[in-house]
Structures are given as C-alpha cells and as structure tokens.
Amino acid sequence: MGNSLTCFSEKNQNSKIRKSNKSSSIRRRSSINGRRLPVAPPPPCISRSTSRKSDRIYPNSSRIDHEDGDSYIREQARVAAALLLQHHHQNGTLGQFERSVSLRDPLTCSARKQKRNIMPRSSSSRARSLSDSLPHHHLDRLLHQGTNIEEVKNKHFVLVHGGGFGAWCWYKTTTLLKESGYQVDAIDLTGSGAHFFDSNNITTLSQYVKPLTDFLEKFDHDKKVILVGHDIGGACISYAMELYPSKVSAAIFVAAAMLKDGQSTLDMFSVQLGLNNLCQRAQVFRYANGKNHPPTAIDYDKSLLKEVLFNQTPAKDVELATVSMRQVPFGPLTEKLSLSATNYGSVPRFYVKTQDDFAIPASLQEVMIDSNQPEQVFQIKGSDHSPFLSKPQALHKILVEISNIPPKMNLKTI
User: Fold this and answer.
1) Nearest Cα to 153, choosing from 134, 175, 136, 126?
2) What is the pTM of this model?
3) Which of the following is catalytic: 156, 161, 230, 385?
4) Of the residues 72, 92, 126, 414, which has the fewest C-beta atoms closer than 10 A?
5) What CA–CA distance (Å, rounded) separates 163 from 330?
C-alpha cells in the first residue's frame, strides 16, 4: 500500500494546486473602466507539518492530507488489533493470537523480536504454569481480589457421572471449569461411557467404582480433589470418601444419592415408589441370568428418555445422550454402604438440588438432605435431572462458589 500512496504525496499535490491557481489567474481578468487589472499573485502555500510524532484525527476538517490519512490508517489498525486482542483475552484464546503472524503492529515488531530472543517461542518447550491455562481476565480478577494463585492451582475437580451416563455428559462443565483455571477429570465408571465392560457382569459397588478408586489411589498424597457426584454417582463418591478421606477436600452431590451408613441406593430410591410412575415406566430391567434370578442391569426406554432425564435439556444434547447412554448395573444399587464419621464424616458435603427433576424429584432430594444434612444446600431453578446439560452456567457458578468456601467449619457427622 505504501507504493500506491506515493503518487498522492503532499508535495505533488501542492505543486499541482499552485500550477492550477496560476493558470486560472491568467485566464480570469476583470476590467474596470476598460482597463485590465493586474494579475494577482497566487496565495502563499503553507505546507503542513510532516512530523510523525502525532497521529491525530481532525474530525472538523474538510479533508485529511494523505500523510495524515496514512497515520489514520495506522491508528485504525491499532484499534482493530486492540479490539481483537481484547476478544482473545475474554475468550481465553490469547495464546493462539500471540502465535499468529497475520496481524501485527509494524511499530512493535522489533520489540517482539527482541522479546522472542529472550523468552521461549513455544509453550511446549517449557513447564506450563497456571497463568498459561488461566485466561487473562480470570487471572486479573483473581489477583485483584487477592486470591492466592497457588490455592487455585490445587483445586482439582473430579466429576463422577450417574447411572447410564458417562464422562461425556460433563463436557460443558469440564470446559467451563478449565476456562476458569481449574484442573478437571471426568471419570468413566466400569461399563459406562467409553469403558468397555458388560454391565450385566458388574455385581459389586467396588467393581463399579474401581476407575475412581484407582484414580485416587494414584493421586498425589499432598494434594486433594473436590468430588462431584450425580445420581448414583453420589453413592460412588461416598464410597471413595470412606477410602480416601485425606485426598478429598469437599464432596458435592448434584441431584445425587446422598446415603447414610447402612443404606443402599435401592433403599433410598424405593422411597419414591408409587410417587414417580414416569420414571418407573422408563426403566427396563435386564435379566442376563434368567428371569428366575435378580435383574443384572437397568436400561431406559429411549422414547421416554427426554421426558424423564432431559425435560429442560437442548435437543442436540438429548440426541447426544440417546446414542451415548448405557445400561446401569443392578448389583451396585443393592449394596449397603459402610460409612464412618472418622472418614466419610470428615469431608465437607454440599448438595445441589434440581427443581424440575423428574428422575429424582425435589421431594426425594429433600428427604436425603434432612436425614443426612450437608454443610450447605444450593438450588438450580429450571433444571431437570441433568443440570450439566440444561443449566451448565448455573452449575458452574455453584461449583466455583463451593471451591472458594474456606475449609474451616464445624463438620457434621453422620
């Protein structure tokens, strides 16, 4: 563009204007009393400053010199780059923006080259810090609020799905938490999600929860996780809390089975028998060992899936669930938990109620809350049984809020 603008330089323009004024003055002559008037000399040409120290824009001027126009273009480019940079700041894609060479301010290229000579060019060649994974606007807010970044770094969520679901169901929650700077792991329990195992052959809770207990077994002893359980995942995280209380900083039950010592999931869910015919009609029992033996798994009637589990969930997520859900092993539902005040009772518990839940109605959730009171109860209005799909932002806000609650509190025992 620089070469194309040289023909419109100020020097050439002033020369053309002076020649035009001179020829016009010669042709235009007026007479007074028959005498011709002398030709008026052309007005003096006052050149504009060519200093580049200021890139001002003059909105009240009838024209902009081409040199100023060039400055104007550079100014607009800076504004556009600043807006794009702000967009990447807000969406957590700053790293991609910085690596791009398609949009750069030419005035700062040399400074960036010097910086690259000092700093590693790619993050893959150095240890990744929390500030790399934290979007800048989140990091700025945390620093402004005086939050200790090391404390945030140690906040690690482990998400445990409910019956028939899998790690896939948490994809919105996982994304939001990671964008907020948290570490997140979503677990596929045995025979669920991408874990290939026949649900009919899962007979015990320990067998069903093994992927979770294996994860905690290998987890660093000097770190802790926040367990989040949904549906029968509540019984699963309770089982893990009893085994590894020192590795769990908090437990969050999302429309989940929150049981007492000596209770099974089937014991708790039997409370709603006769109260929720829709849920019972949607359940299909499987008898891999024959009808003369107890059920081996529970499946869902696909035609009733949306009405029971996803009545507030977007259609595209319902389709995802329809092709992703698997059978629920029956054996683990019948196993009574052994929970102690020393282990399970030492972990702070929080409950998240789902108001428009047709699978585990709010009334049943209240029964569990009243009989085994947690530290605090949260509520999501307009949520079905799957808030991670129907109300992901609201659930995310609650999870982050719980993660910031100080650990110093009087723990309730069972």
Assistant:
1) 134
2) 0.64
3) 385
4) 126
5) 10
In the set 65, 317, 357, 384, the catalytic residue is: 357
Known catalytic residue at 140: no
Q: Using H for helix, E for strand and C for coil, what is the string for 15-51?
A: HHHHHHHHHHHHHCCCEECCEECCCCCCCCCCCCCCC
Bridge partners (DSSP) of residue 286 are 297
Provide CB contacts within 8 A for 116, sequence distance 6+: none
Q: Is 357 noted as a catalytic residue in this protein? A: yes
Cβ pair 364, 271 in contact under 8 A: yes
From the list 231, 317, 384, 396, the catalytic residue is 231
| Residue among 398, 359, 406 nearest 378 (CA) | 398
Tokens 């009243």 sit on residue: 370
pLDDT tens-digit profile, the chain (414 residues):
444 433 434 444 444 444 444 444 444 444 444 444 444 444 444 334 333 333 333 333 333 344 444 554 555 555 555 555 555 555 555 544 443 333 334 434 444 444 444 444 333 333 333 333 344 444 444 444 444 444 554 599 999 999 999 999 999 999 999 999 999 999 999 999 888 899 999 999 999 999 999 999 999 988 999 999 999 999 999 999 999 999 999 999 999 999 999 999 999 888 766 556 778 888 899 999 999 999 999 999 989 999 999 999 999 999 999 999 999 999 999 999 999 999 999 999 999 999 999 999 999 999 999 999 999 999 999 999 999 999 999 999 999 999 999 875 434 433
* Helix, strand, coil in percent for the chain, rounding step 5: 50, 10, 40
Given the structure tokens 């067998």, which residue do they identify?
A: 207
136 is catalytic: no
